[in-house]
Every structure is written in structure tokens, then in C-alpha cells.
Amino acid sequence: MITQEEENQLLDRILAGDRQAYAHLVDEHKSFAYTIAMKVLDSRPEAEEAAQDAFIKAFQYLKSFNRQARFSTWLYRITFNTAISYKRKRKPVFQSAEKTIIPQAGAAEHSLEQDDKLRFVHEAMHALNEADRLALQLFYLNEFSLDEVAAITAQNTNTVKVRVHRARQKLAEELKRILKQEAITL
Amino acid sequence: MKLPVTDEYLLRYLNGELEPREALQLGELLEQAPGLNTRLEELRIIQTYLKQANHPQQPGINFTSRVMSGLDRVKAQTLSARRGLILLIGSIVASGIALGLLTLGAFDSSTSLLIEPPVQNTLINLPEISVPFNTKLLVNTIIFLNLGLAFVLLDRTILRPLFQNRAAGS
Fold it and tell me: Of A7, A26, A37, B63, which is most buried with the most CB atoms under 10 A?
């Protein structure tokens, strides 16, 4: 992880013409940029392409970056916008059940029952509206602050706060409903 | 403790953000209210899921090298933009000169194309061929096409990059 000062030095070098210095920035931020694109697009090849595109755009417009915000926030916003435009352009595709990634509970102490519950939450997650789901996912991605999520998604902080709260509330309600249904079935 | 305890309050409890005194009070309340306990359990599951599902993922191993090779394309595009700008200026200047000449009436006199016989022959009188030719119309057409080209160049070299820049910067 590079410090703000190191990042500024890298930016100065890039702007002075040292293009190889940009590779350090790419290495530093590629993981989050890719994950953000992945949250929007839900497709590995598309997310990779969108994230690469975002890095190229960021390089192209680096002169216009005024350094008032952090470079990462500016870059993630470009990534988010690029991913959204990729999503708008693409044709609707059917995603098979096998392709759907359900997070695996890695720890051994998780019981089968808990894994089932996590699966239910995953299902409930897809029942949320897209904007709420994205706000919630970004909020929990490395635990971005509400201000950072707002900057990335170009929304008001209060709007993001409402979205996160509403999404969590809906998840809880949905989980409650599913569990009740399960209890009746048993 | 004030009732009802909100989800936000329970989430703060799960995140360990409550004061020890508040956490103790809530612990006591949880023992007395099984409904609240169930709610806490539901929120715990959601927190667990969200934290598990939202770890940063790694792109492919060639990611950085692909981005770096993509930068070369950007450089090439910048050069073609410069060429485009030169072409745009050239196109506008040419249209301006043509329009100026047109206004001054430089193309008013030549309205026919005269084809004279290649060899002067006193024995046979070859007729002079005159093809009607509207130079003004031709120049107007060229100016029109030139301005169309200038508009396309303006869009490609100035307007589109400008709006893309704004979109990326905002």
C-alpha cells in the first residue's frame, strides 16, 4: 500500500512523461477497480475489460485530475461510470444457475445451517433494486465510508446512507420471510 | 434503555461500536426479549455474508501489461488528433479562401470550357468545341463538402474528446 505522498510523486512522474510509473498505480488499484466493475457487470471478462478501459481513460485525463480528492476515489468513479456504460451497451443475457457465484463460508466452524442462511441472503441480495444493492456492496467492499461510496457513484452522501440502510433492512426482511417459509416447509 | 432498539443500534452492537455500558444493557435486554435476539441473529448473518461476499477480487495476471499496452493506443490516438486538428484548420482556411474568391466574383466570368483544336490547320477548318461549365456551382459544391469534412473533424478532434474529458473529470 502506497502513501498519499508516494502517490503524488508517482503522479508527478507520470505527468512528466514517465509512463512506466503508471504501472505502479495500476498494480496498486487494479484489485478494487476490477471488483467495482465486477459488482456492476457480474461478468469476469467484461469487468476486466471495463477496468482496463477505466485505467486507460484515467491516464488519458490525468492532467485534469485536480488532486482535491484521492486518486483512488477519482479512478473508482471512472471505473464505476465505465462499467455502467458497458452495462448499458450490452445485450441482455441469461445467466445460468451454475454461473452464479455463491460465496463459500470458508471457516470450519460454519455449520451447514449457517451456509444455507448465507445462501438465502445471497438470493435476497438479488431481489434488491440495483442501485441499493450496489451501494450496499460498495459500502462493504473494504468498508468504504459513505462519503467514498457517494463520490464513486456520484450521489449525495445522504442518498447513499438511505440506500445502504434500506438495502440492509430489505435483506433482513427477506431473510426473515425465507426462514419462516423454511420453518413451515420443515 | 429506550425501546424499540433499532437495526442500526444492533448493527453498531455487532460492529463493537457501542460503549461498554450500552453493550451490557443491550445484552440484558437480549436475554429478556427473544424476538430481539432473533433480529440480532438475522443481522449477524447479513453482516457475515456482506463481509464475505465483498472481498476485493484479483483480475487476470496480464492485467497491468494489457493496460500499459493500451496506453500506446492512446498515444497513437493523440497523434491522429493532432493531424485531425491540422486538417481541420486547413479545411477551414481553404473554405474561407474559396468563399472570399466567390464573393469577389472570381468565378463569374468563366462559364464555359473552351476546347481548341490541338493543331492549327489552314486547309481544314476545325470547329472550336465549347462545353457549358458552371464554375460557380462546382466551387460551391467543393466548399459545401469541405465544410462537411470540417464539421466531422471538429467533432472527432475537439468536441468528442472534450465531452469525454468532462465526463471523466466530473
Answer: A37
